[in-house]
């Protein structure tokens, strides 16, 4: 899956053929179709695999005591995905969340598990009084994903940003998002 993730990100998912995937993964096309229904199934399986890993990591944020600290960690982790796994993020944004079929795939279920971790952090913050009681969790989630999508799309296509510059922007974004939740 990692090899196809790179292929989809570098060449563009729509231009990669099943024959190229079979060659790159050193399996026959027949075997490829025994494992996956089609190219989109390969894409969604790759997204699901990565999202399951992100859920496992984010679940450990609950070892951190305060909801505010957990939220900072979640935002930072979410945005640094672009630095750690650029091919996944490119596929997730371009071929995942902006693809209606994503929302009927098992990958979406794992995305929801990942976002439920954010929801719980925000609920905990509202309950302990460290976050605004009128904070709309659903809207915060949409805002986070919108800022994330727009930011990484700019990094992919409009700006040739270095990792150090990205970290500075991630810190700015984190500070702005935190201001929204604080009382």
Characterise the protein shown here:
This protein has 183 residues and is mostly helical. 77% of the residues lie in helices and 0% in strands. The chain is built from nine helices and no strands. The longest helix is centred in the middle third of the chain and has 23 residues, at 106-128. It is elongated and about 55 Å long. It starts with a helix and ends with a helix. The model has no long low-confidence stretch (mean pLDDT 94).
Helix and strand content put the structural class at mainly alpha
- Tally the beta strands: 0
State the shape.
Answer: elongated
Strand content: under 5%
Number of helices: 9
Q: Which parts are unreliable, with pLDDT below 50 for 5 consecutive residues or more?
A: none
The radius of gyration computed from the alpha-carbon positions, rounded to a whole number of angstroms, is 18 Å
Helix content: over 70%
Give the topology string: H per helix, E per strand.
HHHHHHHHH
* Alpha carbon gap, first and last residue: 44 Å
| Sheet of most strands | none
Summarize model confidence as the mean pLDDT. 94
Could you give a quick summary of the protein structure above?
The chain is mainly α and 183 residues long. 77% of the residues lie in helices and 0% in strands.
């Amino acid at each position: 899956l990692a090899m196809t993730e790179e292929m989809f990100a570098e060449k563009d998912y729509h231009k990669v053929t099943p024959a190229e995937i079979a060659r790159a993964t050193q399996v026959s096309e027949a075997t490829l179709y025994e494992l996956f229904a089609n190219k989109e199934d390969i894409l969604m399986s790759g997204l699901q695999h990565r999202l399951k890993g992100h859920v496992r990591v984010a679940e450990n944020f609950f070892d951190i005591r305060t909801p505010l600290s957990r939220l900072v960690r979640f935002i930072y982790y979410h945005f640094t995905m672009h630095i750690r796994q650029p091919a996944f993020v490119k596929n997730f944004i371009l071929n995942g969340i902006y693809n209606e079929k994503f929302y009927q795939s098992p990958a979406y279920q794992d995305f929801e598990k990942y976002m439920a971790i954010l929801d719980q952090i925000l609920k905990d913050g509202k309950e302990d009084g460290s976050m605004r009681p009128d904070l709309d969790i659903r809207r915060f989630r949409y805002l986070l994903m919108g800022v994330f999508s727009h930011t990484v799309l700019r990094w992919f296509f409009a700006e040739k940003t270095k990792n150090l510059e990205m970290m500075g922007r991630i810190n700015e974004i984190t500070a702005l998002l935190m201001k929204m939740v604080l009382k």
